[in-house]
Amino acid sequence: MNFPENLKYTDSHEWVKVDGDVAIIGITDYAQGELGDVVFVDIPEARPVASGEAFGSIEAVKTVSDLIAPIGGTITEINPALEGNPEIVNSDPYGDGWMVKMTIENAEELDNLLDVTKYQSLIGK
């Protein structure tokens, strides 16, 4: 299982990569493995979201799960590749399988996220 050290993580299994004042968000390798084969990603629109708010959902063969915003901000871009190829979440969760890009409303919220060591501890790795 892959756990990039340059990312921040949530206890709901999202990851955050900070690029200036933009956060790129996706789900972790652990999460995609637990979900199984991803068949659909539903992120309705680019819009403001609050930390902890569901901004969409991800559907696998066996279940549907909410996607939770790790920080507050405005979604500015939804990964267009997910519409036709949702399975890239399984094959490349930290690369081509990203979900959204959003502006960072309050950078201090990033301090509330988990580093790689704490995330690995959370999932028992």
Q: How many structural domains does the protein architecture include?
A: 1
Structural class: alpha+beta
Biggest sheet strand order reads: 1-2-3-9-8-5
Radius of gyration: 13 Å
Strand content: 25-35%
What is the strand and helix layout of this fold?
Layout: E1 8-9, E2 14-19, E3 22-27, H1 29-35, E4 38-42, E5 48-49, E6 54-60, E7 64-68, E8 73-78, H2 81-84, H3 88-91, E9 100-103, H4 116-122
Antiparallel strand pairs: 1-2, 2-3, 3-9, 4-6, 5-8, 6-7, 8-9
Notable traits:
6-stranded antiparallel sheet; 3-stranded antiparallel sheet; alpha+beta; 125 residues; 34% strand; 4 helices; OB fold (Dihydrolipoamide Acetyltransferase, E2P)
Q: What does this entry look like structurally?
A:
With 125 residues, the chain is an alpha+beta fold. It has one domain (8-104): RNA polymerase II/Efflux pump adaptor protein, barrel-sandwich hybrid domain (OB fold (Dihydrolipoamide Acetyltransferase, E2P)). It has 4 helices and 9 strands. The chain has helices at residues 29-35, 81-84, 88-91, 116-122; strands spanning 8-9, 14-19, 22-27, 38-42, 48-49, 54-60, 64-68, 73-78, 100-103. It has a 6-stranded antiparallel β-sheet. Strands 4-6-7 form a 3-stranded antiparallel β-sheet.
